[in-house]
Amino acid sequence: MKVGIIGAGLVGSAAGYALVLRGVASDVVLVDMNRERADAEAEDILHATPFAHATRVRGGDYRDLAGAEVVILAAGVAQKEGETRLALLDRNARVFADILPRVLDAAPQTLVVVATNPVDIMTQVATRLAGLPRGRVFGSGTILDTARFRALLSGHLGLAAASVHAYVVGEHGDSEVLCWSSAQAGSVPVAEVAEQVGRPLDQPSRERIDNGVRHAAYRIIHGKGSTNYGIGGGLARIVEAVAEDEGAVLTVSMLEAAVDGHGPVTLSLPRVVGRNGVHHTLMPPLDDRESAALADSARTLVEAADGLTLPEGGSHGG
Q1: Which of 98, 166, 273, 289 has the most beta carbons within 10 angstroms of its beta carbon?
Q2: Which of the residues are catalytic?
Q3: Per-residue pLDDT for 80 more than 80?
């Protein structure tokens, strides 16, 4: 599979590196306004291929995206310390208005995966600009938040993270919703597992895990200036689901006509991802508190999008 990555910064290069380590792409092209940076990152990643998988990795320009089955949009202005993802909106929308038509001119049949923050609204911008069926344009959404939730639950329970099934839905940001009521380890609700293994999920434990998920990006940015490895791994996982036509259930972000009466809105829900993009959306069971929180998250995103004049889309359909 050929994969293009627009933006050879920390997130784009981490995604390229993760693609090589997972062996899910045969050809990776990095495109950046700074061609020297794209070439350098590509060469560095290429030098890891003897230790991982045989992958062609190179810097290029937009015409080198021809034939790409997936293009990851990781271009944009970086999030500053203390800055919310939504505060990035206007600057990064202008970036997309410039680059996305070039992507689709070169690779009109590609799937577009958005990683640029604020990812939900940037996915809505990309959907409007692309003019593609909405299942072919989707964002990384809360795939990383879901991974954080599972990792922290697994640590609390003393179980492998792969045995924990729990989702974070809504905004990839401050209003995201941790789905405690449907979280399971194996086929057993996590609250029952916690009692059985002698590690109850009391209120302080839940608050610690919630804080660990909800504020992870802020802590990481404070400590090192950016987040990149986790999302790089998440993007590679999305590409793997496409390459293998898995029908994997991943919490990616996509445009919906409405969620709990608020819309149009782009946010994350568990979605089935395969060769042609998103096939289906699955609504997890939510308790009353979680349902209200999801409605609040949808309203937050609608209000943020209402403050932006979204560009009109093209007609690249397929």
Answers
A1: 273
A2: 172
A3: no
